[in-house]
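Is manganese (II) ion placement plausible here? Inputs below.
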Amino acid sequence: MKASLEIDIGRLVREIEELALISENQPPVVTRVLFSDADIKGRAYVQKLCREAGLKVRQDAVGNMFARWEGRDAGAPAIATGSHIDAIPNAGKYDGVVGVLGGLEAIRSLQRSGYQPGRAIELIIFTAEEPTRFGIGCLGSRMMAGTLTAERIASLRSSDGHGLDFWRQRAAVEGSLDSVRLGADALAGFVELHIEQGPVLERQKVDIGIVEKIAAPSSLRLRLTGVGGHAGAVLMPGRRDALVAGAEIALAVEQAALNSGSPDTVATTGVFRIEPGAINSVPCAAHLEIDLRDTDVACRDIALAKIEAAASEICRRRGIEIQLERLNADAPAICDTRLVEKVVRICHDLKFSSLKLISRAYHDTLFMARICPSAMIFIPCRGGVSHRPDEYSSPEQIERGARALGEMLREMAG
Ligand code: HGY
Ligand code: MN
Ligand code: MN
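Reply from A.M.:
I modeled the complex. Tokens:
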């Protein structure tokens, strides 16, 4: 019987707390948007920890970081784990970070046990899992999977109008972008540790979630242009108020999800900016970003078409000009059944209760599953809360996740 792995949970929790202090906001609020000063500092912090663990660190042309533990079988494709450290505005400490620092601690616990991997083991810190910078999530893993054309990459714009090259230069990330794509046999397998970002595991008092499927995400960006003017002088008939048109669209978004016929359809108008934003000035423009998902891609696509049709009809009726951009509409990911069964058995051996479930949040595994057999290990988070400063998983929950991950890596690396 293999010696069971010892996770240094004290150290892991300290590192999670230290990384949480690297934020664009005051603690406990974490914000670390792609290639911001906080993101750049956070990346340097994690790279330092990886080097201290004796891992060889490299970075690709879009900033995906790879920390590698060489295997005995140098020619064999590596296996990998990892997640992200970028964080949306007003976020918590654990989303993504548990998979990065928990992945590093899983590797260190294997090193301490005297284990020598057959295949190399890579810890991947993905670029821009969050959509905040460019409106599209999983930018780094999408490009590793080769799902974005050169034109699409060139068209990426942050809200202040800058393209990807501006942000890469800011972060001293260089290289040709078409070198990011991984070859079909680059990796033999991938497994990501992540907080559930939902209430199921806590409600059912289960230690470990084993993801079978990741829901199908899509997002829209709308630019509405009306006619501004003096709030006192412009009478109501014939107004072309961009905010009110946007508000009607946001209600149509909610209706499309409520009336989709599927309890798994979720739709959110998460960004709604107006111009000029003065109390006594009729809004002349509105910028909306809409997030729509479902576990069933056909259902998602019906709701997506409904939202696009409603937005056009509302703007036509209100005399508002609309620019509508579909940023992404991705297929769901199915996790590899053999890896799923491995996690089931590892949990059994470790005496952790486990439950197979669907991930309603998307993750880099959504795209890694297009490159190699992939799986996800979830741990509970308090109240299912995430993308909020009060996001929380206990040291015991994190330790169980890291131990299950460590055993998984040991099996996958042979
Ligand atoms: O939005 C998501 O599902 C992920 O947390 N970025
Ligand atoms: Mn997130
Ligand atoms: Mn995440």
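Short version: The first helix runs from residue 9 to 20.
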